[in-house]
Structures are given as structure tokens and as C-alpha cells.
Write a sequence for this structure.
């Protein structure tokens, strides 16, 4: 039997990502949970992380593995290995599929899934009902220990959005934990850096001013960060920040970094999206940037996925407003 992994990817609203196959596939126009075949020597966890990055260009945290589904399609037999995963990204890049949707769990029943994915969706909904019934409302998270190794272990063991929220709440209450998360975000350990920066972004979503004392250091470090997942989280933090509090020098560094990301053929879709948002905010401070940003976005329009094109059009309309009223801010 052919072993195939798939991911039930949830966003921060606990909606689930589904993707549609193209016409020239073995299940034309059917919807499915994204994933793909195991490579030789690859673990199932390594496979799903790789497949989601290749197919959708988004970073995920694996929460748990579900029961395998064996299915005989007639032309081939597969074992589908589902994983429940979380992400903070909203714009998947369609490398192999023709469409995507974020759906409330209840709406999964209405989707025209491939047969094996129907079983996965049904089991996920059953599991969701059981989990909700067992959850005790109002449960407070335990505070993580301040010991570095214990905190690192807790971050690396993080199993999804709830655990990330718990640690983020502790970081909001405790500046030492906040600083440690930032320190770990620069780690050479990719998993630790990604998880730490993700938690950090969730804390800053609630209280953007928490990052103010560290924002110059983050801007100076962006070009040195090779971990794409970490860079996405840090750019997301910057989009929530008050850029008026950043020095002119760091405005320049930030603009250079974001323009380079937009013009690069290798930047992930989320990095382009956050870079576009940051450059728009900088254009409000420096209207002279408007023309360059307008031209850069127009250059992107022909070869980008629908999500980034839609965001680009929104920003182009806003930029047109700046051009007509350059003193407005």
C-alpha cells in the first residue's frame, strides 16, 4: 500500500484549510486535506512538514497524529496518515492545487472530498466533539518555569495553538520570559526558533507595545535570519508595531529588507505579504516611498497567487490615496 500523509491545518480562528485538486489529476476537482507521499528514509512527521512547505509555503506545528485510513481506490490502495496541525499564516501558495478555503469545522460536512478524505474529516469532527466535551472551561495555564532548559523543553513540546496561547500569556505577565522567547527566536535550533517566534508574535498580537524596547534589534537582525519561519513571525510582529517609534536609520534598514523580499523570486508568500504591509506603513511616514512601492507591487501582479494579488490591490488603492493627499497621516 502507498503511504500518504495529510494535514488538517487550523488557523487562529480554528478554521480548517482544504484545497482543491486540478483537472488533470486522479481525482479531478475534488477537495482534500493537503499532504503527499512519504519519501524513502523519511518519517511521517518529516513528510507532512515538507509536503506542506512545498505545496503551500506555510509553516505548521504538528499537534497530534490521527488514526490511519486505509482505502482502496480501485486503481491503487493507500494508507492515509492524518495529522492535526496549527498555523498562524493565512495565505497559502498554490503550487499544486487550484483553490483553497478556510472553513469552520461544521462546514467540512458540505465539502466534495475525495473518499479517503471524507473518512478523515468525519473522524476529525468526532474527535473535535469529544475534545470539546472533555475540556473544562476557565482552566488557567500553568506558568512555565524560568529555567532556560525547562522553558526550551516546554516550547519544543508545544502542541498547537492552546499551548502557544498559554506560554504567550506568561510572556505578557513576565518580561523575563518575553526576553527569553526573543533570545530563543535567534537560535540555530530551527524548531526552537520557530516555536519561540510564533509564541512571541501571539503575545505581541495582544500587546504590540511589548516589543518596543527590542524593535531596533529585531530590525537589525532580519537580514541575518535564515530560518524563513522565524522571519515570518518577526515580520508579523513588526506589522503590529508603531513604526513611528523606530529611528530613521532603522526605517531605512526595514524598507531595504522589505523591498528586497518583495522583489525576490525566493521569498515565501507570507514574507511578501508582511513586507508589503510594512512598506505601506512606512509610506505613510515617508510619502516619497509611494511611487517605488506602487511600481514594485504592480510588477508582482502577473505571477503571484490570488491572495497576494488581492492584498496588493488593496494597498495600491491606499497608496493612490496617499499620492492625492501626501500630507495625510
Amino acid at each position: 500500500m502507498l503511504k500518504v500523509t495529510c494535514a488538517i491545518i487550523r488557523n487562529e480562528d480554528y478554521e480548517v484549510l482544504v484545497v482543491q485538486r486540478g483537472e488533470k489529476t486522479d481525482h479531478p476537482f475534488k477537495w482534500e486535506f493537503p499532504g503527499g507521499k512519504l519519501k524513502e528514509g523519511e518519517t511521517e512527521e518529516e513528510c507532512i512538514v515538507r509536503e506542506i512547505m512545498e505545496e503551500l509555503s506555510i509553516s505548521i506545528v504538528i499537534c497530534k497524529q490521527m488514526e490511519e485510513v486505509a482505502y482502496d481506490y480501485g486503481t491503487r490502495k493507500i494508507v492515509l496518515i492524518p495529522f492535526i496541525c496549527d498555523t498562524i499564516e493565512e495565505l497559502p501558495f498554490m503550487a499544486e492545487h487550484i483553490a483553497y478555503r478556510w472553513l469552520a469545522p461544521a462546514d467540512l460536512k458540505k465539502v466534495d472530498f475525495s473518499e479517503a478524505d471524507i473518512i478523515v474529516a468525519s473522524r476529525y469532527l468526532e474527535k473535535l466533539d469529544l475534545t470539546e466535551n472533555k475540556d473544562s472551561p476557565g482552566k488557567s495555564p500553568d506558568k512555565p518555569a524560568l529555567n532556560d532548559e525547562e522553558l526550551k523543553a516546554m516550547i519544543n513540546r508545544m502542541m498547537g495553538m492552546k499551548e502557544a496561547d498559554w506560554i504567550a500569556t506568561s510572556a505578557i505577565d513576565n518580561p523575563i520570559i518575553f526576553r527569553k522567547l526573543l533570545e530563543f527566536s535567534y537560535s540555530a535550533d530551527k524548531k526552537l526558533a520557530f516555536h519561540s517566534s510564533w509564541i512571541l508574535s501571539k503575545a505581541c498580537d495582544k500587546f504590540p507595545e511589548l516589543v518596543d524596547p527590542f524593535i531596533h534589534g529585531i530590525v537589525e537582525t532580519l537580514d541575518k535570519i535564515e530560518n524563513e519561519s522565524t522571519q515570518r513571525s518577526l515580520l508579523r510582529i513588526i506589522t503590529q508595531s508603531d513604526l513611528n517609534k523606530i529611528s530613521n536609520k532603522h526605517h531605512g534598514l526595514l524598507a531595504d529588507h522589505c523591498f528586497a523580499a518583495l522583489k525576490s523570486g525566493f521569498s515565501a508568500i507570507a514574507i511578501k505579504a508582511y513586507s508589503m504591509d510594512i512598506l505601506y506603513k512606512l509610506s505613510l511616514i515617508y510619502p516619497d516611498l509611494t511611487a517605488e512601492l506602487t511600481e514594485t507591487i504592480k510588477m508582482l501582479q502577473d505571477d503571484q497567487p490570488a491572495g497576494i494579488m488581492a492584498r496588493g490591490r488593496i494597498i495600491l488603492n491606499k497608496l493612490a490615496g496617499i499620492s492625492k493627499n501626501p500630507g495625510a497621516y
